Amino acid sequence: MAFRNEGSEPEMTVKSILETCDNSGIEILAINDCSDEEADFSRYPQVRYICNKKRLGVTGCRDSGVDEARSENVLIIDGHMRFRKDNWLERGIEAIEKNPGSIFCTTSVDIGSGNFDLKQAVLPINHGLPYYVGCGLKLFLTQKDNPSRPGNYRNIIESKWAEERDGRIYQIPCLMGSNYFFKKAWYQKLHGFKGLKTWGNSEPFLSLKSWLAGGDVKIIKDIEIGHLYRNKNPNAVPSEHIIYNKAVTAKILFTPEFAEELIHFLDDNPKVDKAKELLKANAEEIEAERSYFKTIAKLSQTDCFKKLRIDYII
Asked: In what order do the strands lie in the sheet with 2-3?
């Protein structure tokens, strides 16, 4: 659980976890990413508290947290989430034990909408709140899709909320909701979020990695985890960093020709230019990750797009 400047929310998230599952064998890694204030988890022996000496961003915290994890079963969450007594932990572990080459998310309930008491540790079964069941992916947003197309970071590799389907567990193109169950070994084989900066585009990056490496991305629809969706993100970064992360996703995972086509589609403006400067500055690291991923990839780019029904024609 990475957090930055979230007040009492990280403690409330820990409290919700411990009140809704058998916590005798779990460890919670609480990673403070250079908040302006200290957090106090001293009353919770299950928490290992880590204070970063320099800001790593959400992606860096998650990578370091997985490396630090003592368990082979890992769940990544944000610092503003709620759980209910529905055996969510046992069912999440059961899913990854049966599918060690998969990454799972759950139904994400928007606990920031409507009249919901955020101090309540257990989500009501009939909560009546908005909920989301993973995402689809679109690689290009055309002028029709987005009239302000030039330079908008949403123009390429954009996730879109998926429509609900029947079934308890099923495949989805893209993770969403900031709760991901997986085997530590699978995440580390994929190199997690290595190559991304701070925040942005992490779900498409990790999802596409899992698919291309011959794994799966699935949702456990009948597990519902509450998420406080907010208007202001304490981890927000300049849009050129998000553009950079999307370009890095393309450069590491796609053919060089297709990656350049995606980046070219952004057109030119100061933010895109800044992202391109960052790409040049980090070219060696990006190439190293691209070369590594080629060694573990099992599904071709074209076959992956067909399997996920991703429209990749402009």
From this structure: 2-3, 28-32, 47-51
pLDDT in tens, 10-63: 999 999 999 999 888 899 999 999 999 889 999 999 999 999 999 999 999 999
Q: Phi then psi for 41, rounded to 5 degrees? A: -115, 20
Domains defined for the chain, CATH in brackets: 2-227 (3.90.550.10)
**Nearest partner of 202 among 140, 246, 155, judged by Cα:** 246
CA distance 205 to 83: 26
Q: Is 216 in contact with 99 (CB distance < 8 Å)?
A: yes
Which tokens sit at 6?
Answer: 């979230």
Give Cα 61 to chain centroid, integer Å: 12
Report the Cα 297 to chain-centroid distance in Å: 20
Can you tell me the distance from the alpha carbon of 314 to that of 295, in angstroms, rounded to the nearest whole number? 29
Work out whether strand 169-171 and strand 135-140 pair parallel, antiparallel, or are unpaired: unpaired
Task: Name 107's Cβ contacts closer than 8 Å, sequence gap at least 6.
Answer: 131, 132, 133, 177, 219, 220, 221, 222, 223, 224, 225
Asked if 193 and 62 count as a contact pair (C-beta separation under 8 A), the reply is yes
| Least confident residue range of 219-223, 261-265, 301-305 | 261-265
> Measured over all CA atoms, what is the biggest interatomic distance in the chain, rounded to whole angstroms?
55
0.90 exceeded by the pTM?
yes
Phi, psi of 132, deg, nearest 5:
-135, 145
Question: Which candidate, 285, 207, 282, places its Cα nearest to that of 241?
Answer: 282
- Retrieve residue 113's tokens: 């909408």
